[in-house]
Amino acid sequence: MGAASPAYAAVVQGIPWVGPAGSGAPFEVDPAVGAQQAINDALATVGQGAVFVTGGTYSLKAPIVLGDRQSLVGTGPLSTLLRAASGFTGTAMVQTPTGTFTGSRMSIRDIGFDGANLVANGINLQISASPSSYGPDPAPWLSRVFVAKTTGDGIYLGGDYSGGQREFKVTDCRVEHAGGWAYHFKSSDGFVSGCSAQGGKLGGYNLAGGNIKIWGSKVYSAGTGDTPGPGFRIGSARATVVGCEAQDTRGCGFEVYGHGSNLSGCTADSTGIGDPGTDRYSAGFYVASSAVNIEGVSYQRTGGGGSWIPAKGMMWSLYLAPGVDYVAARLIGDPNRPTPYLGGVYGTAGSHSSITVLV
């Protein structure tokens, strides 16, 4: 039998791995081409399986394409760091295949992505039709992933398939300095835990898909300029938000548009623009939908507000949009109440509501 091909040898030796030039890795990175070539070659070789990228900082000049039941694994969110290079071609550092994609169950873990303000998304996973290999829930997993300096959304999950990347799981991730949303979920039935967002010009977390569960996550410094950015936007129905915090945002801490949403144990700390006439964008919690339950704390602390955004902070603990009803809100403020704080509640809910704000 003749000598095994390099691709075959890479498989029989174990998980295909990618390393720097001269490392002896089955798939070595050519800096002149970009690390995406070696990573995509390894993914093509493994088929349905995992590709491991050794520690180091690597340049990307085009997207990594993650397909059906494939995993991209690094040594840690800052130990393996992929950075967009000048001349980057594409809209995301990691994406699903273009055209009609029906794959599912991709995963990304222990790896970092630095967009260097050259690329729209760090991660953009989409499904365009009913999954063909495993379904009905495409369910990608992201764990211990770091994304920084994108011109658009840091992490985006969606697609034309009903519910997008349904039953997704995002855990222990961090997004910094995104030019859009830090996290943008246009997918339903997802689970998000232990994540953080610093910055995000449009906001921290956009829960645009239905029935998303998020807990133990935080955002600060969201919003900028003329675009008030809330910490959390609950844009679709039946969301559950537990133990989350928004702090020092240029916009409300939590915006609730989703019917049947439930927020429990959440904290809004010094959230809002705080200038006269910006009441709508200067509340801890903004409610624009009926059948909403909120329990938590909402206050302006001494010296609070993101002066670097710029933002002065909270004017109202709770802002009720016209026409809302069946709202139960139980909030605790702070007896200190420094400026620009004005009061506990702005607006009035319907007769089927119960509102208590202690300040």
UniProtKB/TrEMBL annotation:
Right handed beta helix domain ranges (all copies): 148-291
Domain of life the protein comes from: Bacteria
Record-linked InterPro entries: Beta_helix, Pectin_lyas_fold, Pectin_lyase_fold/virulence
This protein's name: Right-handed parallel beta-helix repeat-containing protein
Species assigned in the record: Micromonospora sonneratiae
